[in-house]
Automatic annotation (TrEMBL):
Presence of the UniProt keyword Glycosyltransferase in the record: yes
GO biological process annotation, one example: carbohydrate derivative biosynthetic process
GO MF terms, alphabetically ordered: hexosyltransferase activity
Residues of the Glycosyltransferase subfamily 4-like N-terminal domain: 14-173
Name of the protein in its database record: Sugar transferase
Residue ranges crossing the lipid bilayer per the database entry: none
Keyword hit for Nucleus: no
Keyword annotations: Glycosyltransferase, Transferase
Length: 390
């Protein structure tokens, strides 16, 4: 199968959507499919052989963060050329409502289109206001996927129609077989995320840290991610700052070793999360997980069975839970065991097969639609799938 995948966000700025697309593309390549990914990227960015650059992206505030997107006449021309050259059997667009390549591809593409919605934002005035512009593009979509029930709910409430829920995937064994690093072991709390993006929750963890360190004098916080390290610790008493170690950006291999090493992984994110891929990666590595009780996180952690939850933005609740878990190796071992079993449902062997099944459904149905309804009509296929807008 010839598969075209559209990434809305800049390939050279790591993020959950980019990682998902990368791993999905590589999964299909291993199965023998022909895959091409169109993504924004700076000219000097080294790209995998399956990625085609659509040019440099620009930073735009989006979904409580700053996304690097690509839009405009030049981008539209590159999208059309990529579609023409690719002659794809199916186009898979991620975040088709973002003002980026996905929306441009929706407008330009012909044939079966699958769209994945990653965003969970129940109060998106921008999405409601943009509905009239998006409607023509969205009606071309043959099947819709949401990465979680909360992303599906955002889609239903703002745009109508429905979607099948297929979660983000992870290579579970890649994390499970990583070798721990001794210098990252021994009373360590782990955090992975952009340091200077408040919704990732590092300020909440920093507020909790003095109570944690007072109760567990041997504990340390290890932080992996880019951002202003001095600003991150400025709220801490000076004598505690040496107990925080910043590792900067880490490779995929080192992230796996990091998660295999820490005694406790903390995800203090405050909102804007539709899934929580880092939780899946941490469980894959066997790390006991403590996370804020966002709806999406609760779902990923099996409502607290595969990892513990604390009240969102409550630094005291975070500190209390962390102190208790750091002092209870049996409970941490129980969470590790439960997480390792629960996470198998997110492995690419399951997730990739589910996505491929959607592709096969829409491509098989396209010929029938053409015969039943004539060229250019996708209504019959959408009705049979029960996935697209009424």
């Amino acid at each position: 199968m010839r598969i075209g995948i559209v990434c809305p966000y800049s390939w050279d700025v790591p993020g959950g959507v980019q990682f998902h697309i990368r791993d999905l593309a590589e999964y299909f390549v291993r199965l023998g499919h022909e895959v091409s990914v169109l993504a924004p990227a700076d000219d000097d960015t080294p790209l995998p052989p399956y990625v085609v650059s659509a040019g440099r992206a620009v930073p735009v505030p989006y979904n409580g963060s700053v996304a690097r997107l690509n839009f405009g006449f030049l981008s539209a021309a590159r999208v059309r050329r990529w579609l023409h050259d690719g002659a794809f059997d199916v186009i898979h667009i991620h975040e088709p409502t973002a003002p980026s390549l996905g929306l441009l591809a929706c407008w330009a593409a012909q044939g079966p289109i699958v769209a994945t919605f990653h965003t969970s934002n129940p109060r998106s005035r921008a999405m409601i206001a943009a509905y009239a512009i998006l409607q023509a593009a969205l009606e071309k979509i043959s099947a819709r996927i949401a990465v979680s029930e909360y992303a599906r709910r955002t889609l239903v409430e703002h745009l109508g129609g429905d979607a099948v829920v297929i979660p983000n995937g992870v290579d579970v064994d890649f994390f499970a077989r990583a070798e721990p690093r001794p210098e990252w072991q021994g009373g360590t709390i782990g955090f992975v995320g952009r340091i200077d993006e408040p919704r990732k929750g590092l300020p909440v963890l920093m507020r909790a840290l003095p109570k944690i360190l007072a109760a567990r004098p041997g504990a340390r916080l290890l932080v992996a991610g880019r951002g202003d390290e001095e600003e991150a610790v400025e709220s801490l008493p000076a004598e505690l700052r040496s107990r925080v170690e910043f590792l900067g950006m880490v490779s995929d291999e080192d992230k796996a070793r990091f998660l295999r090493s820490v005694d406790l992984y903390v995800a203090p994110n405050t909102g804007g999360e539709s899934f929580g891929i880092i939780l899946v990666e941490a469980m894959s590595a066997g790390a006991p997980v403590l996370a804020s009780d966002l709806d999406a996180f609760a779902q990923v952690l099996d409502q607290g069975e595969a990892g513990e939850l604390f009240a969102n933005e409550d630094a005291d609740a975070l500190a209390e839970a962390a102190v208790r878990l750091l002092g209870d190796p049996d409970r941490r071992e129980e969470l590790s065991r439960r997480g390792s079993a629960h996470v198998r449902r997110f492995d690419w062997s399951t997730v990739g097969a589910d996505i491929l099944s959607v592709y096969e459904t829409v491509t098989a149905g396209a010929a029938a639609v053409a015969a039943d309804e004539g060229p250019g009509s996708g209504g019959g296929l959408r009705a049979r799938l029960g996935l697209a807008r009424d």
